[in-house]
Design goal:
By secondary structure, this protein is α/β, with parallel strands linked by helices. 49% of the residues lie in helices and 15% in strands. The strands form two sheets. The protein has an eight-stranded parallel barrel, surrounded by nine helices. It has a two-stranded parallel sheet with strand order 6-8. Helix 5 (84-92) links the parallel strand 3 (74-81) and strand 4 (97-100). The longest helix has 19 residues, at 265-283. 49% of the residues are buried. The mean pLDDT is 93. The structure holds zinc ion. Zinc ion (ZN) is lined by residues 79-80, 181, 213, 235.
Length: 286
């Protein structure tokens, strides 16, 4: 199987993006892997702190290992690790990549801690990629009433991006380019700053990848533009959380007496699979 770095390098050259989808259980995992299989693309599975606690770090790693053993190109990422210890645990558990989220720390502290994670990853004896986050993109995979205030004022600058990547040695950068976590209830999410993505991309070395967090709620054309401008990984979480819930809700509404989990959770699985499949097709569209 190709390493995550190889997969990302090819995606970068071909100007397509790899989809990153979060899971809390094995049903969502199966839905995502089945969609990736259908579209015939590699896929990244993410677990954030809450998700990791729920599913169990070893269980998440075991699910991915089993899929890999059966020939699927599935990779596992720690999404938004807020402590160095969290990242180290994920590296020890066999994750392919870890993200250290120091976006709430000072620039200097963010650099120091991210660097510590990079050093640990390099010493692991495996190829583990490290992602760092710069700038503010909010912190909830929820339905929101309004755009968080900090988002516009805390976009990543080219200078910061260059310095951060050089000093920390990260492989992947998550910049703030108008993206937010969560989805707005009323309208579409704010537009991405495509110009900023291009400028940051141009300022970074060739072997550095860029990830777009908060992909839920972004328009199809805005996605395509951002990928063309240099985004290599797109994170989708809120959309599939909503699809999972709505699928299960509608199954129970149609069959209120049903108690066999596989007769209503399967509708959640199908809804997740449909969303993931549509997103994956979009990410490879030229
Ligand atoms: Zn994120």
């Amino acid at each position: 199987m190709r390493s995550l770095k190889e997969v990302l390098s090819i995606a970068k050259t071909s100007k397509v993006a790899i989809g990153h989808f979060n899971i809390s259980d094995s049903t969502q995992f199966n839905a995502i892997v089945s969609a990736a299989n259908e579209v015939d693309v590699p896929v990244l599975i993410g677990v954030s702190e809450g998700e990791k606690k729920f599913i169990g770090i070893q269980n998440a790693a075991a699910l991915v290992r089993t899929a890999v053993d059966s020939g699927q190109e599935v990779y596992l990422n720690l999404d938004h690790g807020h402590s160095v210890t969290d990242c180290k645990d994920a590296i020890d558990a066999g994750f392919d990549s870890v993200m250290f989220d120091g976006s709430k720390l000072s620039f200097k502290e963010n650099i120091n801690k991210t660097k510590e994670v990079v050093e640990y990853a390099r010493a692991s004896g495996r190829e583990v990629l490290v992602e760092g986050e710069l700038g503010y993109i909010g912190s909830s995979s929820k339905m929101l009433d309004a755009v968080p205030e900090e988002v516009e004022s805390a976009m990543t600058t080219v200078e910061q991006a260059r310095e951060f990547v050089e000093t920390t040695g990260v492989d992947i950068l998550a910049p703030s380019v108008g993206n937010i976590h969560g989805m707005l209830k009323s309208s579409g999410n704010p537009k991405l700053d495509i110009e900023r993505i291009t400028q940051i991309r141009d300022a970074l070395p060739d072997d550095i990848f860029m990830v777009l967090h908060g992909g839920s709620g972004i328009s199809d054309s805005n996605f395509t533009e951002s990928i063309e401008a240099g985004i290599n990984i797109v994170h989708i979480n809120t959309e599939i959380r909503r699809a999972y819930r709505e699928g299960i809700e509608s199954a129970l509404k149609n069959d209120a007496e049903q108690i066999a989990p596989y007769k209503y959770i399967n509708k959640g699985r199908d809804a997740v699979r449909a969303v993931v499949s549509a997103r994956l097709k979009l990410f490879i569209k030229k």
